[in-house]
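Protein of interest.
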Amino acid sequence: MMRTFLRTCLTCSALILAASPTLQAQTTGEREGNRMEKKGNQEEKAANAEKAKAERMENEGKEKQKAGKKHDNKAEEESGKRTEKKGKAMDKQAKAQADEAKEMEKAGDKVEKAGVNTKKAAEKTKAEK
């Protein structure tokens, strides 16, 4: 049992040592691209949450409007209209924010690809020497 354990440990350590030169640090382009993508993802999630909040607000406004009409309460009806209008505006803003976040993700992806291409070109020139 101990021999098997030692063999396994030696084999694993040999593989790790052999693979370590191939594990290189990321280039600045790759790091920047990853950072931009992560930020874009976070902003997109925030925008989606804002969209959900706006939708709830719109529905709440519609319900207030219906209740105001049902009970002949003009103040409640007007409050519902304002709430619905505010929800629509929030939804529009959240959609714009989500679009910006998607563009940031795409830009980050392009920057990351450029960094990878630079890294490959550097490795190719090293191999040629």
